């Protein structure tokens, strides 16, 4: 682990299109929920809130993908997001994507860049 990095999880905790891992980030002195998933062989992390209305995405603990494992889905509104970019693909997100969280993956782990 390098300076300015905080451990989020082991790389093996994330399977392609599978469960994500929840963690928190500090923003303006407040802890905010975030999550990391694997898509396209790469880990991607976002704040855990829908672009439409501030609600957490996961429909069950650590379940962020739709049934196909191809898209991130808001459990409340059904908004769909591209896992690799957080871009809104459809639904009530009306073009408002997910806010990315800076992470790095090395040495078999995923780290938050602080």
How would you characterize the overall build of this protein?
This protein is mainly beta and 114 residues long. It has a single domain (5-113), classed as Rieske Iron-sulfur Protein (3-layer Sandwich), CATH 2.102.10. Helix content is 0%, strand content 39%. The chain contains no helices and 9 strands. The strands form 3 sheets. The protein has a 3-stranded antiparallel β-sheet, with no helix packed on it. The protein has a 3-stranded antiparallel β-sheet with strand order 2-3-4, with no helix packed on it.
Strand order of the largest sheet: 1-9-8
CATH-defined topology = Rieske Iron-sulfur Protein
Give the tally of structural domains: 1
Overall geometry = globular
CATH superfamily: Rieske [2Fe-2S] iron-sulphur domain
Nearest-angstrom radius of gyration? 13 Å
**CATH architectural grouping:** 3-layer Sandwich
Mean pLDDT: 93
Q: What would CATH call the class?
A: Mainly Beta
User: What structural class is derived from the secondary structure elements?
Assistant: mainly beta
| Residues in β-strands, percent | 35-45%
Number of helices: 0
Helix content: under 10%
- Given as residue ranges, the uncertain stretches (5+ residues, pLDDT < 50) are none
* Head-to-tail CA distance between termini: 12 Å
**DSSP summary, beta strand count:** 9
Largest sheet: 3 strands, antiparallel
List the secondary-structure elements in sequence, H or E: EEEEEEEEE
């Amino acid at each position: 682990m390098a300076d300015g990095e905080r451990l989020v999880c082991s790389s093996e905790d994330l399977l392609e299109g599978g469960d994500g891992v929840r963690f928190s980030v500090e923003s303006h002195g407040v802890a905010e929920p975030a999550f990391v998933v694997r898509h396209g062989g790469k880990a991607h992390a976002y704040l855990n809130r829908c672009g439409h209305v501030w609600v957490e995405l996961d429909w069950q603990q650590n379940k962020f993908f739709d049934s196909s494992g191809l898209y991130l889905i808001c459990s409340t509104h059904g908004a769909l997001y591209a896992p690799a970019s957080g871009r809104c693909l459809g639904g009530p997100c009306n073009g408002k994507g997910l806010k990315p969280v800076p992470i790095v993956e090395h040495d078999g782990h995923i780290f938050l860049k602080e």
